[in-house]
Amino acid sequence: QAEEENESLKQENAALRLALETRDFEARSRSAEEKTQGFANRLERETWAYVGRTAQGIQYEIPQALQPGQLYTLGVDYFRAGEDEKAAKIFTFLAGLEDGEFTGPDHLMLNGVVWYRLENYRISDAYFEKILELPTATDRQKAQTRIWRAVIAERKGDHRGSQKMLSELLARHPKAPEVAWVNPLVKAKTETKKEGERVPASHEKH
Questions:
Q1: Rounded CA gap, 38 and 32, in Å?
Q2: Residue 33's closest CA among 56, 6, 2, 13?
Q3: Quick one: which of 18, 49, 69, 138 has the fewest CB in 10 Å?
Q4: Beta carbons of 90 and 62 less than 8 angstroms apart
Q5: CA-to-CA distance for 78 and 89, rounded, in angstroms?
Q6: CA proximity to 126, closest of 200, 5, 41, 4
Q7: How far apart are CA 19 and CA 174, in angstroms?
Q8: DSSP per-residue codes, 164-203
């Protein structure tokens, strides 16, 4: 009888711990959702008008029973499988958690890439911009970020902005592997521009 009572107490304690953890996670979920909404509203005011899909418009519901680390693993699996809406919903939620565990360069990079895939270049570029502000970001991460921002600028028709990002890449990260294929592109654009600015030979004679 004592053993049965002990086992019963263990089960009750386990159920209580699970209930407390669930309640704590739900509270953090609500807080993260509020922060995410505030972040989206601020982006709407401060960045580009172009809007693709948004977190609020994605019907996928985040599993409430999973801990943040488990959610991240699930998000990465969705990302690799090309289920970008689900991955974006999870990554955006994690980025809004109060502990800031998922706001490092690698996590922001995933957010930027997945929102680029969903053609919301406004949100995508905002995440990439944050990487350049982080002191923990490596030179390689910043180089990759500038390439992504150049691509995004080109997507929205900002050729000058794209050229600026590529020029910054060459100036700030001359030894980055990405420069090997970006450099010929920048050089070709520059030479084309100079070619168009040349004075015709007939004018030079006068």
A1: 10
A2: 56
A3: 49
A4: yes
A5: 10
A6: 41
A7: 54
A8: HHHHHHHHH-TTSTTHHHHHHHHHHHHHHHHHHHSPPHHH
114-155 pLDDT per residue, tens: 999 999 999 999 999 999 999 999 999 999 999 999 999 999
* Burial profile 152-166: b = 16 or more Cβ within 10 angstroms, e = fewer: bbeeeeeeebbbebb
Separation CA 31–CA 79 (nearest Å): 24
Cα separation values, 70 from 66, 76, 156, 166, Å: 6, 10, 35, 37
Confidence tier at 80 by pLDDT (50, 70, 90): very high
Chain centroid, CA 21 distance in Å: 28
Specify the range with the lowest mean pLDDT, choosing from 33-37, 78-82, 89-93, 149-153. Answer: 33-37
Residue 36 CB partners (closer than 8 Å, separation 6+): 55, 92, 93, 95, 96
Q: Which tokens belong to 104?
A: 């490092």
Q: What are phi and psi of 126, to 5 degrees?
A: -65, -40
Number of H helices, E strands in the chain: 9, 0
Residue with tokens 């600015």: 197
What DSSP element (H or E) covers 78?
helix 68-81
The CA-atom distances, in angstroms, between 139 and each of 107, 109, 110, 113, 136 are 16, 14, 17, 18, 10
